Amino acid sequence: MKYSLLPKTDLKISAIGLGTNAVGGHNLYENLSEEDGKNLVRAALDNGITFIDTADVYGKGRSEELVGEVLKEYPRGQYVIATKGGSDWRNGTRDNSPEYLRKAVGDSLERLQLDSIDLYYIHWPDDETPVKEAVEELSRLKSEGKIKAIGVSNFSLEQLKEANSEGEISAIQLQYHMLDRSIERDILPYCVENGITVVPYGPLAFGILGGKYDEDFLLEEGDWRKSVPLFQEGEFEKNLAIVDKLKGIAERLDTDVSKLALAWLLAQPGVDSVIPGGKKADQVLDNLRAVDLELDKELLREIDDILQEK
Ligand SMILES: NC(=O)c1ccc[n+]([C@@H]2O[C@H](COP(=O)([O-])OP(=O)(O)OC[C@H]3O[C@@H](n4cnc5c(N)ncnc54)[C@H](OP(=O)(O)O)[C@@H]3O)[C@@H](O)[C@H]2O)c1
Q1: Do residues 114 and 146 lie in contact, with contact meaning Cβ atoms separated by under 8 Å?
Q2: What is the C-alpha separation between 229 and 121, in angstroms, rounded?
Q3: Is the pLDDT at 28 greater than 60, yes or no?
Q4: Which residue range or ranges hold the NADP-dependent oxidoreductase domain (predicted)?
């Protein structure tokens, strides 16, 4: 495993992290048992992963509770726990007000059974609370030791700039993967210039870059991905065609598309860690191996040519 320091902290994050929205019954993953969910986190921590990503909304609080139960089995210094708040799943609203964020941090600490959260993200901007006020409150929580670093998620470049001028932003979490490179236009260069790490979410394009889907793949009723543009008719087929071409490169490298996709992200400037999700411990172990895949300039150019075809 490779490690780096989370910017503006002395916390060591692993290049491959773990996304845990499957743990605790997120809509897509209702059939994952709680024990299997906990075993995903154990598989990660037992095999060199230190960076665990959750959020208060995952499983409506249950993800944090289950992750917290597992974390108790490990020394505090062995992991870096990131969680997110500022969206209230009880009434489906976003709330970045200082009062709400303070309460949300307290609730997350309780569910995780910890004294401090290593990285706390505002999950989504609420477009009402001035970014300044939200970041100031997180800075206060940081000086009180309740959180160790501040992150934002799903922020525009303007919102990120504002946040970064009001407080010390360590990380931004955004959708970024081979099939959606929109952040490369503006946010990624800004982050590289300003020492903010980009934590890509959906690194496997929510399953498409797992390489298992074909044109007969149908999303079940209620699957949240039904509203994701990547899965819309026409777009989905284009994405499958790209995956097919990537399979050719993966085969030559004696690997598969999922590991190629993770290694490609890690090769991008500004990305230090990826947080793939999954439902099986085997997937966690498989994803770990992406860290050994080095992509040289020529390969990156070849991949780029394929991705440009979309
Ligand atoms: N900040 C935000 O707003 C936000 C939004 C979304 C996600 N996130 C975070 O990002 C994390 C990752 O995103 P995600 O879980 O939604 O999507 P993802 O990592 O792109 O994809 C996960 C899917 O990939 C498949 N997969 C995993 N490992 C695989 C492997 N080795 N080979 C083949 N397929 C594999 C699994 O499919 P099967 O289960 O079908 O096998 C799983 O459904 C989340 O867990 C969460 O922590 C944050």
Answers
A1: no
A2: 25
A3: no
A4: 15-307
Q: Which domains does the chain have, with CATH numbers?
A: 3-205+269-295 (3.20.20.100)
Task: Say how far residue 269 (Cα) sits from the centre of its chain.
Answer: 17
For residue 153, the ligand 1 atom closest to its alpha carbon is 1
Cα 224 to averaged position of ligand 1 atoms, centre (Å): 13
| CA–centroid distance, residue 121 to ligand 1 (Å) | 18
pLDDT at 29 exceeding the cut of 60: no
Ligand 1 center–CA 277 separation, angstroms: 3
Token pair in block for residue 69: 């139960």
| CA 213 – CA 210 distance, rounded (Å) | 8
What is the 3-state composition of the chain as percent helix, strand, coil, each rounded to the nearest 5?
45, 15, 35
CA-277 nearest atom, ligand 1: 15
The Cα–Cα gap between 94 and 29 comes to 23
Query: Does the annotation count 121 as an active-site position?
Result: no
For ligand 1, pick from 58, 81, 183, 201 the residue to mutate: most ligand atoms within 8 Å of CB: 201
Considering the candidates 3, 29, 58, 120, report the single residue annotated as catalytic.
Answer: 58
SS3 32: coil
For the stretch 152-175, pLDDT in tens is: 999 999 999 999 999 999 999 999
